[in-house]
């Protein structure tokens, strides 16, 4: 693990266990066992470190999702149903701590703050990803379905984070499948 990865790994653990604002630069430096100059060499500001954390979490999610989806079924709604199953599985993993961009937007509530703005970008990225999958599946209004699925999945992630094991992920999957099936009946 190189120095940048070490800093980001430490920051990720602290952000997820203590919160972003509660994990100051001095704590990250102490936990990493590095000099302050080293941290600032790789991340000139805490905002850049937070952005790297959020980007890394999103990238790992999409990599996991894409490696588990059967894209041989990409031109059918089957891939969307499979996606719903995978999102439920992901939310229910013990490593799931909520959507990082949700947490960051709560910790930085000012809509003008760069972290809040980046969190909104990541939410839109998820919506665009889902819309693109709906488009490839031949859904007539893919942007509508993409937004609906985003609302359902983000809501399930929040409810499961606040009340683990309550069944929100399973119910969200069922609702998403119903929407997909209804949207598929209106295909192009």
Automatic annotation (TrEMBL):
Residues 24-43 bind DNA. Keywords: DNA-binding, Transcription, Transcription regulation. InterPro entries: Homeodomain-like_sf, HTH_TetR, Tet_transcr_reg_TetR-rel_C_sf. SUPFAM superfamilies: Homeodomain-like, Tetracyclin repressor-like, C-terminal domain. Gene3D superfamilies: Tetracycline Repressor, domain 2 (1.10.357.10). GO terms for molecular function: DNA binding. Residues 1-61 form the HTH tetR-type domain. It holds the Pfam family TetR_N. This is TetR family transcriptional regulator. It comes from Methyloradius palustris.
């Amino acid at each position: 693990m190189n120095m940048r990865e070490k800093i980001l790994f430490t920051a990720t653990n602290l952000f997820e266990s203590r919160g972003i604002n509660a994990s100051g630069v001095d704590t990250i430096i102490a936990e990493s066992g590095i000099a302050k100059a080293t941290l600032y060499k790789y991340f000139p500001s805490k905002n850049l470190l937070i952005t790297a954390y959020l980007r890394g979490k999103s990238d790992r999610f999409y990599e996991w999702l894409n490696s588990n989806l059967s894209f041989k079924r990409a031109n059918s709604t089957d891939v969307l149903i499979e996606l719903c199953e995978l999102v439920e599985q992901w939310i229910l993993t013990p490593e799931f701590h909520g959507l990082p961009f949700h947490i960051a937007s709560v910790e930085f509530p000012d809509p003008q703050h760069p972290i809040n703005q980046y969190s909104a970008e990541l939410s839109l990225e998820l919506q665009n990803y889902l819309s693109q999958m709906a488009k490839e599946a031949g859904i007539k209004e893919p942007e509508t379905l993409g937004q609906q699925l985003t609302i359902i999945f983000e809501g399930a992630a929040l409810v499961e984070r606040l009340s683990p094991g309550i069944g929100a992920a399973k119910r969200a999957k069922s609702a998403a499948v119903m929407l997909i099936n209804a949207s598929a009946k209106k295909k192009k």
